[in-house]
Design brief:
Layout (H helix, E strand, L loop, with lengths): L5 E6 L5 H10 L4 E6 L11 H17 L4 E4 L2 H14 L4 E2 L5 H6 L4 E5 L2 H5 L1 H8 L5 E5 L4 H10 L17 E4 L2 H4 L2 H8 L3 E2 L2 H11 L14 E2 L2 E2 H6 L9 E4 L8 H12 L4 E2 L9
Parallel strand pairs: 1-2, 1-3, 2-11, 3-4, 5-6, 5-7, 7-8, 11-12
Antiparallel strand pairs: 9-10
This protein binds D-glutamic acid.
Length: 283
């Protein structure tokens, strides 16, 4: 039997679940490994050197598992070291970036860009903003928002957005940290403005690179799955002959794998086959 394509999804915590969810909706028949580096979270307050070394360790685990591609489902890790990881690993490494271009294309004039403190200081992020046209971006880095979102999801603590977000009038909000996308609706309601994130774009890019024999799993020009195009897949539920598999890898002692598995199935309600690995490498 043909081996399923395997993709590693990496984040400092739960933020990458939004990217994973977008991938699962795009097609079936892929095995995903999810690795949350809870031990070293939040990445937003770490140094570049620290982040690069944690990311490298995570991708080494994917390599040992025979991954065909990996995604840094973390804007901070992408801003810090995606290029370095692309040079270091034999498989494609896809990054996640703040969706400032989407906000521009939607016609925003005054958009708020929410990123972690580390992302805000990265040259890659500044260059992304500098390439912009026509929209004035206000960058804000809530120092504890990612951790508060993580705690609200895993421990059920109450998230008070008003304690983390700046007041102001914006006609769009770019969610430049994957954790923020998990409360995208709440942030949209807070500002009464549309929010933009890179989850879908990242998933499409990833699946266009992750195929075997040079064939993309889902490509820009390869959108058909049976009778459905991938575009349609976003608006209606898809039935795939082959289900996806998701394996949550063990992380630190602080990380409760079971909790993540349950949180993911209840929160995203995506149908997939879960494989619960007893052992798994401890990261
Ligand atoms: N989810 C990560 C991102 O997209 C960062 C969260 C953290 O600070 O650990 O930037």
């Amino acid at each position: 039997m043909e081996r399923m394509p395997c993709i590693g999804v990496f984040d400092s915590g739960a933020g990458g679940l939004g990217v994973l969810s977008a991938c699962l909706k795009l097609r079936g028949g892929v095995r995903y490994y999810y690795l949350a580096d809870i031990a070293h979270a939040p990445y937003g307050s770490r140094t570049e050197r620290e982040i690069a070394s944690y990311v490298r360790e995570g991708l080494e685990i994917f390599k040992d598992l025979g991954a065909d591609a990996a995604v840094l489902a973390c804007n901070t890790a992408t801003a810090v070291c995606v290029e370095e990881m692309r040079r270091a690993f034999p498989f494609p490494v896809v990054g996640t970036e703040p969706a400032v271009r989407l906000a521009e294309r939607a016609g925003c004039q005054q958009a708020l860009v929410l990123v972690t403190p580390r992302t805000a200081r990265c040259a890659r992020f500044r260059a992304l903003l500098d390439r912009g046209r026509g929209c004035a971006f206000t960058v804000f880095s809530p120092p504890r928002l990612a951790s508060a979102i993580e705690a609200s999801l895993t421990e059920g603590s109450r998230l008070r957005l008003a304690e983390h977000l700046p007041r102001g009038q914006f006609d769009g909000v770019v969610l430049g940290c994957t954790h923020y996308t998990l409360v995208g609706e709440e942030i949209a309601a807070f500002y009464a403005a549309p929010v933009f994130d890179g989850n879908l774009g990242t998933a499409r890019r990833l699946l266009s690179l992750a195929g075997r024999d040079g064939r993309p799993l889902v490509g820009i020009s390869d959108h058909r799955m049976g009778d459905l195009t991938t575009n349609k897949c976003f608006t209606q539920s898809c039935e795939y002959k082959t289900k996806n598999e998701v394996i949550f890898l063990n992380s630190s002692k602080k990380y409760n794998k079971l909790q993540y598995e349950q949180m993911f199935s209840t929160r995203f309600g995506v149908e997939f086959r879960q494989i619960f690995t007893g052992g798994g490498k401890v990261f």
